[in-house]
Amino acid sequence: MPRESWRDHPEYLALWRESRQSADDRQLSLVLADWLEEHGHLEEMWRERVRAFTGRFPVIVDGILRAGYVPIGQGAWQMLLAATVPDHLLIHFDCNIHTYRHLTRFGGRCGWNLGMRDWPSPTERNHLRAIPRLEMLACRQMTADSWRWTTASLPGLTYLELDGPQIEAADLARLKMLPALRHLTLDGRAAQNTTALTTLPNLRHLALGPYTYQADRIQELAPNAESLLLDMEELGESLRWPQLRSLQMSHFQGEPTLSEGEQVALSQYVHLERVKIRCRNVSAAGVQALATLPRLRELTLHGEDVFPSLEALARCSSLESLTLLGDLQHEHVHQIGQIAGLRHLSLSQVTLADAEIAVLANQTSLESLRLAGLYHGQQAPVALVELPHLERLELQNLTMNSAFPQRVQGAAPRWMECVVAEA
Q1: Does residue 253 surpass a pLDDT of 70?
Q2: Which among 268, 345, 340, 257 has a CA at the least distance from the CA of 300?
Q3: Ramachandran angles phi, psi of 231, nearest 5°
Q4: DSSP-derived secondary structure letter, 66
Q5: What number of other Cβ atoms are within 10 A of residue 187's Cβ?
Q6: Given CA atoms 159, 162, 165, 168 in this order, what sign does their dihedral have?
């Protein structure tokens, strides 16, 4: 997806840079948010409003904006309640008992992160029932009693995230009481044994951990999955999920890993937009297969050995985010330089010299760049801060001449977030 043209509008650029130069000035972020709302960019407007009141800049993943804790006072909730919420966006808030009353007047789709709170009292449970468009619930260490109440009392939930629930494996059978459920995240002991679970045909997103699962079992649980976040064994080379858009392995290290045949077989999943996989050996055939995916936007590859040629990735016309973890040499950087339209690039265990910095400095679409490894160039890599759209530069894990980090930071414009190693 190419950079949106409105991001280069002179008014937007001026407001954006001013807000970043004065990060503690809430009003500047709110002025920028007003501009975004007036021009119809509602997702970005919400990100700026949340940033103004929380100090965090949230990302939007799969239609969910995680706002975190919005403070009481300073007119924060009044402004958020007045803001337009696009119907495709779900705003997920962290729990504060004083904000229940605000969510009862919230017109958009919303979620509630209860953290480690339990909600045994009728009053708190009535608060949850009173939120008109509550679609998402997240909780850490949910008790068995709260699990029974949730499944019996909130049948409209479409998103459920449970971290370490204190329930038995047999209790998972109660998921059938949530007929609207489309997104399920389950992490902890309760996720080890899924035998009580029956097929969930409406489920579109499934995240399980921290265990490894047989691909046949995942296919049985979620035959219509569009997004999977888990570690699978024996994925095989056949097409299991025809509508799969996102495939992510949970961890960056250890087993299982994808074989060359399984890497190549990913080319069958023509709807894939996001791929995050771990391989003992990232194969040339696997890279070529991934390059054929017409919708691939985000690619993360972790290989234990030296990467093969990456030339084929230049054919990925939709690729905008690339993360590589493994042994990356000079030639790999030159091959990455042939990929047009990259907006986000992260390279770990990479070896760089002056020529490679020049290649990266020509990636003019970059908005974020992270480099970790070894730089043995003769000049400080200040050319990177001159990238016209770069918003964040991370070099703190790039070993280089001890004088270079401060030179880079000194050359960076004030509105750029530039992170380098401390002197």
Answers
A1: no
A2: 345
A3: -100, 125
A4: E
A5: 19
A6: positive
State the amino acid at position 370 in one-letter form.
Answer: R
- Predicted confidence at residue 21, as pLDDT, reads 86
- The pLDDT-based confidence of 23 (bands split at 50, 70, 90) is confident
As a whole number, the mean pLDDT across the chain is 93
Cα angle 19-61-282, degrees, rounded to a multiple of 5: 110
Q: What distance in Å separates the CA atoms of residue 52 and residue 56, rounded to the nearest whole number?
A: 8
Going by C-beta distance under 8 Å and a sequence separation of 6 or more, which residues neighbour residue 99?
70, 72, 77, 93
Contact 98, 77 (CB under 8 A): no
Its pTM surpasses 0.85: yes
Residue showing tokens 């097409």: 239
Residue 118 has what pLDDT? 66
Q: Reply yes or no on whether the pLDDT at 74 is more than 80.
A: no
CB 132 within 8 A of CB 104: yes
pLDDT at 161 over 70: yes
Tokens 């904006």 locate to 65
C-beta neighbour count of 238 within 10 angstroms = 9
Question: Backbone phi, then psi, for 324, in 5-degree steps?
Answer: -125, 130
* Nearest of 334, 366, 326 to residue 353 by alpha carbon: 334
User: Nearest to residue 313, comparing CAs of 295, 349, 340, 331?
Assistant: 340
Omega before 10 within 30 of 0, i.e. cis: no
Q: What average pLDDT does this structure show over 327-351?
A: 96
| Strand runs labelled E in 164-297 | 183-187, 205-214, 227-233, 246-248, 274-279
- How far apart are alpha carbons 237 and 219 in whole angstroms? 14
Token pair listed for 280: 């003992």
Compute the average pLDDT of residues 1-21: 89
What gap in Å lies between CA 154 and CA 158, rounded to an integer? Answer: 10
Which DSSP letter does residue 359 get?
A: H
